[in-house]
Amino acid sequence: MSPLLALALAGASTYLLRAGSVRMLSSTEVPLRVDRALRHAAVGVMATLIVTSLASRPSIRALTAPEVAGLLVAVVAARRTTNTTVVMAAGLTAYVIVGAATRLL
Amino acid sequence: MYRSRNDNIPTATIERWSRSNPMRRLGVADAASLVPAVFPLGFALGAALSDLSVSPLLAWSTAPVLVAGASQLVLVSQLDGGASAVAAALAALAVNGRFVVYGAALAPRFTSQPAWFRWFGPHLIVDQTYGLVTNRFPNGEARPDEFRNYFTTSSALLWLAWAGSVAAGVYLGSGVPASVPLDFILPTMFVALVVTGLRSSSEIAVALGAVAIAFTLGGPTAPLIGAAVLGAGVGASTTRSDR
Asked: Is the reported ipTM for this assembly greater than 0.85?
């Protein structure tokens, strides 16, 4: 019972997180300044996830050479194309190649 | 006119289904471009969940119910460690605070939608769907029906891929070859979602600032709050659309 209750509670509360702000703000006219603030806040949150999802966080000095290479190549690719598959493939390829080279050296 | 991110994906069936609705086709194509990243992550998460002492069905159920990998792992780990239902649910909730920001940012696009979509749509707001929607319609320029068709198809496909991959991981175990760089798939996916969508100098500044904050503060939660505050401040002080 307890695991099911936990799942139900977590599911309901996570839904309320998502839907609460949508329901609250979709029924009112959002001022342009607030709209820009929200969109920029979301950009910041997603950019943060790049770092927090890295295996070697939390320190920039802990970044490995394959991670630096993979991130740089992915960023360059992302500025040149909007195709997310290409961006991920480029970053992962650089990560694997530099990782292999590092192990050989 | 909108162009597809990945024109190779649609099969004949999907083509027939989406022929009358270009937004559905775009939604499928854009979401399909992320499936190669989502699937191994879901599989690995499912394999990790299967190592814990909760039932496989409950472990898998977190995927369609929560649709958020980190909080799924937190919830099941807490239960595995003997936490109470309320404590486990609160721990999972704490990981998902960013959905408030995503929901608030997308709220204007839900204004003129039918009731079923305003109630059901938010459940499918995740990092990937938020990134796809804001990259595809950066200024919210889609009509309500266009946004609804795009969001519904792209998020439904990602939801299916997530639920399916977690199920495969839970029931088939850890079968991902060691050569697959699982650790680095998530960062590259976020780079793809964030950087391809940066269209103004203020957004680039916020993204760079957020990365600097994340490296400075460390940990999973404080950087998210710091980046949200930074982004909101920069966005509010931006005096023009800047796109």
From this structure: yes
